[in-house]
Specification:
globular; CheY-like_superfamily; Transcriptional regulator; phosphoprotein; six-stranded mixed beta sheet; disordered N terminus; alpha/beta; Sig_transdc_resp-reg_receiver; Rossmann fold; 5 helices
Amino acid sequence: MTSPHAAAPAETGSQTRSTDGIHQVSVLLYSDDITTRDAVRAAAGRRPARDVEVTRWLECATAFAVTEALDAGGWDVVVLDGEAAKNGGLGLCRELKNEIYQCPPILVLTGRPQDGWLAAWSMADDAVPHPLDPIRIAESIAGLARQRAAAR
């Protein structure tokens, strides 16, 4: 359900901090496929951009784990795999956007470029299609982190 990459349980509220112009963010990642989770983490790395540093990752393999983690608070960016089995990330995204007050920005991973309309329907803040482009993933996570910091 979660990975060893997760830090201590999240406190209530966002963890976005800006130190010397660097936004330090926490990322929640959902996919039932460990290779997809590994690909996203590798693409973003520790520094997806010069001004964005990922200080904490939480990997979830079930939609229930995502909901619990978001209820606990403290996540700045959420990445959901639209191709996940049982509970796809697109439907989960729409549910989260409708039910969570001030929901963190969400990046969805779609099955193909033509699924952009599904990402729009899901109310996602950004979308990256499969096959995953590491540069687009890093840019998207950095952009969403900046968006979250600006909203604060």
